[in-house]
UniProtKB/TrEMBL annotation:
Annotated membrane topology: Multi-pass membrane protein
GO molecular function: chromate transmembrane transporter activity
Main localization of the protein described in the UniProt heading: membrane
Subcellular location: Cell membrane
Transmembrane segments: 94-113, 125-145, 157-189, 209-229, 241-263, 275-295, 307-330, 336-356, 363-382
Species in which this protein is naturally found: Melghirimyces profundicolus
Name the record gives this protein: Chromate transporter
Family matches, as PANTHER family: CHROMATE ION TRANSPORTER (EUROFUNG)
Keywords: Cell membrane, Membrane, Transmembrane, Transmembrane helix
Pfam families in alphabetical order: Chromate_transp (PF02417)
A GO CC annotation given for this chain: plasma membrane
Similarity field: Belongs to the chromate ion transporter (CHR) (TC 2.A.51) family.
Length: 405
């Protein structure tokens, strides 16, 4: 290490240490109150962890956010896991995830139980939850396109990805699109000089990081083979949700098409129930990836909920622990940045395809449904209403349409 790097490291404010119970308490409060999606979650985290409690400084927090935006998986959950790891080691990482995640898990499991056996076509408010998904995904596509595909090269990648996803609607196609887009970005997209960054100080060794990445890859490659050999529904659930958590770039709403391709073709959840649950997931605090808890409950009861929840979040632990010691090296390689620019553009296209099928085709049955979706979109985009309020208004609108139809 040269003298400059030594000085940089020694002058850095390392994250302070604390207890697991302290981490759990703060994370649980955030899990009960953090509405609004991953971008809002990052704002809540900054207010709580940086400004109020001063567990870490602004630059370290910004570096963690940059790392978790770079990795596949739920960015806000990964930031929380990282902060817990820095604050109280691996037990702190688990406590941070558990506290932030469990409130929405419990709410969505309860919703799934309540929803079981209900005919969605005859329940207006449930159909309203399907309709609000159109507005929410449209808002996500619009926002992501402006930031991740703002120029002709990346816009072209996004459009080609959407066309391919619509033409060949399988989980394998989505993975192939992501890989191909990364290669296109690496070879063809312009490269930008990396910004100066401050190294993150942590107790995770490089040996532990390598072991974590090996476990990540073994499960990613081994679970599909095991599912084929055993024909077990439990292994299939673990495989489908683990693969989703490992391959979703962009987090949040991008989980929709991959999860749909996992649960609906297997017959675990109907397309209508899938979208109703997705709408309900917008109305609860915490990470959107807890949508997996609703789907796991619908597929195999409470045990299915636990398995799906653990499987979809487990890759985040492996990736955070595996990437933190190498993050400084990765960020300074322009080839990685260009490759992920291509991947992020393709993510926009995959979500655009999902906006049409299954979201629009399943939810919009006529002009009144489309009008209700436009109202929800206006509340989100024009009036900037919180998503949970828009969900409630649209559910009420679905009930009104049922009464007067």
């Amino acid at each position: 290490m040269d003298k400059h790097n030594q000085n940089t490291t020694s002058n850095q404010h390392s994250p302070s240490r604390g207890s697991v119970w302290e981490v759990l308490g703060v994370a649980t409060r955030l899990g009960l109150t953090s509405f609004g999606g991953p971008i809002a979650h990052l704002g809540y985290f900054r207010d709580e962890y940086v400004q109020r409690r001063r567990w870490l400084d602004e630059k370290t927090y910004a570096d963690l956010v940059g790392l978790c935006q770079f990795l596949p998986g739920p960015a806000s959950s990964q930031v929380g896991i990282s902060i817990g790891l820095l604050r109280a080691g691996l037990p702190g990482a688990i406590a941070s995830w558990f506290g932030f995640t469990m409130p929405s898990v419990l709410l969505l499991v309860l919703f799934s139980w309540f929803f079981a056996g209900t005919d969605i076509e005859k329940a207006g408010w449930l159909h309203g939850l399907m309709v609000v998904a159109v507005a929410i995904v449209a808002q996500a596509v619009w926002g992501m396109a402006k930031s991740l595909a703002p120029d002709p090269p990346r816009g072209t990648v996004a459009l080609l990805a959407a066309i391919a996803a619509l033409a060949f609607p399988t989980a394998g196609t989505q993975v192939a699109i992501i890989i191909l887009a990364g290669l296109i970005g690496w070879r063809l997209l312009p490269r930008k000089e990396p910004e100066d960054t401050i190294p993150i100080t942590l107790s995770v060794s490089r040996r532990s990081a390598v072991l974590s990445l090996v476990l990540f890859a073994v499960l990613l490659l081994g679970l599909p083979l095991l599912a084929q050999v055993t024909k077990s529904q439990w292994i299939a659930i673990a495989d489908g949700f683990y693969r989703t958590g490992a391959l979703v770039f962009g987090g949040g709403h991008v989980v929709l098409p991959l999860l749909q391709s996992v649960v609906v073709p297997h017959g675990w959840v109907s397309g209508e129930s899938f979208l109703a649950g997705y709408g309900a997931a917008q109305a609860v605090p915490g990470p959107l990836f807890t949508f997996a808890s609703y789907l796991g409950t619908a597929a195999a009861g409470l045990s299915g909920a636990a398995l799906a929840t653990l499987a979809i979040f487990l890759p985040s632990f492996f990736l955070v622990i595996g990437a933190l010691p190498f993050w400084q090296y990765i960020r300074r390689r322009t080839a990685f940045q260009a490759a992920f620019a291509g991947v992020n553009a393709a993510v926009v296209g995959i979500l655009l395809a999902a906006l049409y099928d299954p979201v629009f085709t399943k939810a919009i049955k006529g002009p009144f449904d489309f009008a209700l979706a436009l109202i929800a979109f206006g509340l989100l985009m024009v009036w900037k209403m919180p998503p949970w309020i828009v969900v409630a208004v649209t559910a009420l609108g679905g009930w009104v349409l049922e009464v007067f139809s």
